[in-house]
Amino acid sequence: MTYTLAIGDRAYSSWSLRGWLSFERFGIACDIESARLYDPAFDALLARFFPARTVPALRLPDGIVIADSLAIAEELAARHPTAGHWPAEPGARAIARMLAAEMHAGFSALRNHCPMNLRLSYQDCAPPAAVLADLERLQSLWAWARTETASHGPWLCGDYSIADVFFAPVAARIAGYNLPVGTGAAAYVAAHLADPAFRRWRAMALVDGPDQAFYRRDWPQRPWPGPAPLPADPSVTGPAENATCPHSGGAVTHFLSLEGRIFGFSSAFNRDMTVADPAAWPAFMALVTAGAPRTD
Question: Are 131 and 51 in the same domain?
Fold first, then answer.
């Protein structure tokens, strides 16, 4: 069973992030085809995924193509009923569905003023009244969902669900534009920023082609507020400790240094996404741990 997911720029395409998380966060494999937004290759990508008009678009194993993040999430939930896309408890499931639907259809002021940009964070974006109203609505929804579902963990309706998938890019916007939220909402944002799947997507986003001018804003910047990456250096040559790439299994051709040790990868992209956030990649960290000296 093979799925193929079409996506845009990882740094900027919030809907692509939702589509990818609907696979990655629930342990479902898919092949990826991508193209940069505002590029002729993007139109060519969509032409291969007719009738989709935007990303994400999904080719199912039987060849049928469906588009729209919510449709993709629902189809995956139906095809993989034990994966956990929706809460099992009926009340929590109803609330999660309502949350995803409202996110899918609303919050246009926040989206327009603060387009997702995972490559940087601003000190202040001077949010207008309509954005502040969207933030108030978000916070009230999140608090209501956690109370109604008695969620004591970091997520909205108990275990991580499609509701959290749909708010992941919102968390990125709050972090990226330093938007004012209360303690509870800030903790929810921090949970997304620390989530390993989100960190892997952002690591890829940081090295996924050049910046897109459309998303540039002339506001003072600050460091990204998520977990600080381990310091890795790509300006090294081999030989590496490992003979095959931890991501692809291919022969190593590119290298990085971490803690004085050299590791190899099968492509510049695989190396660079690892440099961006080494700890986000379990297969790579397994290499690091396996060869680490004993301290006992």
Answer: no
Count of alpha carbons within 13 angstroms of residue 63, beta-carbon side: 0
Residue 218 inside a domain? The answer is no
Instruction: Check: CB of residue 177 under 8 Å from CB of residue 1.
Output: no
Asked whether residue 192 falls in the same domain as residue 253, the answer is no
99 shares its domain with 188: yes
At residue 34, the 3 state secondary structure works out as: strand
In the chain, what is the straight-line distance between the N-terminal and C-terminal CA atoms, in Å? 46
Which pair of structure tokens corresponds to residue 21? 């998380």
pLDDT in the model for residue 1: 67
Cα angle 215, 220, 223 (rounded to 5 degrees) comes to 85
183, 276: one domain: no
The pairing of beta strand 4-7 with beta strand 31-34:
parallel
Tokens at 260, concatenated: 């004085």
Low-confidence stretches of the chain (pLDDT beneath 50)? 294-296
Question: How many angstroms separate the CA atoms of 139 and 10, rounded?
Answer: 26
Return the bridge partners of 256, or none.
Answer: 263
Cα 237–chain centre separation: 31
Q: What is the pTM of this model?
A: 0.96
Give the CATH number of the domain where residue 12 resides. 3.40.30.10
Cβ–Cβ under 8 Å, residues 45 and 120: no
Number of domains into which the chain is organized: 3
Instruction: Give which of 5, 17, 22 is closest to 162, Cα–Cα.
Output: 22
Amino acid, res. 179 = L
Q: How far apart are CA 37 and CA 58, in angstroms?
A: 17
CATH number of 177's domain: 1.20.1050.10
- The confidence score (pLDDT) of residue 296 equals 46
